[in-house]
Specification:
Largest sheet: 2 strands, antiparallel
Oligomer: single chain
Strand order of the largest sheet: 1-2
Number of domains: 1
Strand content: under 5%
Shape: globular
Structural class: mainly alpha
Helix content: 55-70%
């Protein structure tokens, strides 16, 4: 397995854990630890932001163009800002999945044009 493939798989696994590892029984609604820790008032969304920032930091080690970096940072900023709003933010976290979006951006970049 290529070194980039291994790193990408690690980030995919972490993004899945944060955004989509669990499912609400009887539905097709996936959620992750980001949604759960976001329920902790005051610090939950910041904990999720720290993990998201780690994923973006690792992704940026792949010589990403500026526009992809901006999109990644925007994804986690939206997740953090809206996620901090009580109740609405918690529901938004289940749908937005910023980490999965960012890993997909990295995957497309590594595949090339």
């Amino acid at each position: 397995m290529h070194k980039n493939d291994t790193r990408l798989a690690e980030l995919e696994n972490l993004a899945s854990l944060m955004d989509a590892r669990f499912i609400i029984p009887g539905t097709n609604i996936h959620f992750g630890l980001d949604s759960l820790v976001g329920l902790i008032p005051g610090i939950g969304d910041t904990i999720g932001l720290a993990v998201s920032a780690y994923i973006v930091h690792r992704a940026m080690q792949h010589n990403l163009p500026r526009h992809i970096k901006v999109r990644m940072v925007t994804n986690i900023a939206i997740d953090w800002l809206i996620g901090a709003v009580p109740v609405v933010g918690d529901l938004f976290d289940v749908k937005w999945k910023a980490n999965i979006r960012n890993v997909e951006l990295l995957r497309r970049h590594l595949r090339g044009p």
